[in-house]
Each structure stands twice: as structure tokens, then as C-alpha cells.
Amino acid sequence: MVYANDSKSFGRKAVEVRVLSRALMNRNNSLNPNKELQAYIIGVAIGDGNLSNPNGRAVRLRVTCDKKYPLLIKKIKNSLSKLFPNNKIGIVDRAETFLDISVYSNNLEELLGWKAKGGSKAVQGVSISAWILDDEKYKIGCIRGLVETDGAVYFDRGYKMVIFKTIIPKLANDFHNAVLSLGFNSRMYKVEKNENGYVNQKTAYHVRLSKNVQEFLDLVKIEKS
Questions:
Q1: Alpha helices in the chain (DSSP H)
Q2: DSSP type of residue 103
Q3: Please, is 65 exposed, middle or buried when counting C-beta atoms within 10 Å of its C-beta (0-12, 13-18, 19+)?
Q4: Which of 32, 40, 33 is nearest to 138 (CA)?
Q5: Which of 13, 67, 195, 223 has the highest CB neighbour number within 10 Å of its CB?
Q6: What is the pTM assigned to this prediction?
Q7: How far, in Å, CA of 30 to CA of 86, rounded?
Q8: CA 101 to CA 93: how far, in whole Å?
Q9: Nearest Cα to 128, choosing from 150, 100, 161?
């Protein structure tokens, strides 16, 4: 509250308060212009992120992480700190096996391409933005974020594989085409909800890479530890 002895002084003080508030708001909404970093965080958010607006003012991104990947948790936290240099990055211990990394920013909806109050990512048809698909470096960053969250590197009968899973058909197609454009022959499968005994499972889309996997991993530099 600002008190003054005359209306002119009060008016000046009120203007100063508004200017200061605007400056603080702009500072807290600063966004690192590094497009590779943005593309990576977009991939992470599409994979395991959730947008909400709990206080009606600032949008929150919450990324849920499995505790068995401590290096990945550290990497995502540090990447968010770089992307939002003036914003606090919080960690909430949700359960024995997982935690949330969160940040508030009103840049999030425009950056990520979906809304906090628009329904689930599947309802909003979240996919990879055109500006990412048009640039190889940005594609690599986004693919890295997607595989680190909604994908896996595993062995099948002694052979190393990479897989990405989603229930969003356009996202699966975008991911598949992005991998193909990098020169790797991935395959996309549709898994119906009644297959493999999972009665309540939604129809899913799997994109799998089984050839030249190590070359792919060397290029994309996926962290799953």
C-alpha cells in the first residue's frame, strides 16, 4: 500500500508501483531464445508433462519423472532452469517411485502449443511443431526429449532397440517421419486396445527402431539413467 500527502505524489507513486509490477512480471516470464533447448523441453513436456493453471494467473508445467533415472531428473531440472532463467524450478516428491519437476510461466502455452484448460494432450491433438520438423538440430532435440520421457532403449533377443509410444496418432506420425528424415528406418505400429490382454488400454501407436540403433543413439544422445 502506498500513502502520500497529496494527490500528485500519490499519482506518481501509483505509476511507479505499476511500472515495477510490470517489470517483475516481464522478468519472471523471460524465456531463453535457444531454439534447440526449447525443442528439447517441448519433447519432454509432450512426453511426461502436464499444463495447469492452479492460481488463475500463471501456467504451470509439471513433468513427472521416475526416480530410477536420477541423471535424467537432474538433466530436465537443469534444462528448465536454463530455459526459464528467472523462474524457480520446484521438485515435489509425489511417491516412493516418482516425483514432479515444475515451473510457472505464462510463456508455456505459446511455447508448447497446447492449453492448460483445453483438455488432455490427446484431446488437443498435441504434435511436433512445424518449426521443429523443418530443422535437423531442433528435430534431434525434440526426439531426445520424447524418447527420454515416453520412450525406451531396450534389448530384444540380444539386439538393442528404441521405441516411442503414444496414444496420439498425429504425434506418432510426426515422430516416425522425423526419425525417417534423419536417415533411420523406423516402423510404426497401431496397437488396438483389446490386444495383449489389456482390456482398459487405449489404442496406442508404437514407433520402433531396430536397425542402426547405436548410430541413432550417438546422434540423438538419449539419457535414460
A1: 7-28, 35-48, 70-83, 108-112, 121-124, 130-133, 136-150, 169-181, 213-220
A2: E
A3: buried
A4: 40
A5: 223
A6: 0.85
A7: 7
A8: 9
A9: 150
Q: Cell numbers 519472471 label which residue?
A: 28
Domain spans of the chain, in order of start: 35-220
Cell 539413467 appears where?
A: 225
Q: What is the CA radius of gyration of the chain?
A: 21
Digitized pLDDT (tens) for each residue of the chain, 225 residues in all: 433 455 454 454 444 434 334 433 444 568 999 999 999 999 999 999 999 998 888 999 999 999 999 999 999 999 999 999 999 999 999 999 999 999 999 999 999 999 999 999 999 999 999 999 999 999 999 999 999 999 999 999 999 999 999 999 999 999 999 999 999 999 999 998 665 555 456 889 999 999 999 999 999 999 988
Q: Which of 206, 224, 197 is nearest to 166 (CA)?
A: 206
User: At CB < 8 A and 24+ separation, what contacts does 192-199 make?
Assistant: none
CATH number of 35-220: 3.10.28.10
Q: How far apart are CA 105 and CA 92, in angstroms?
A: 17
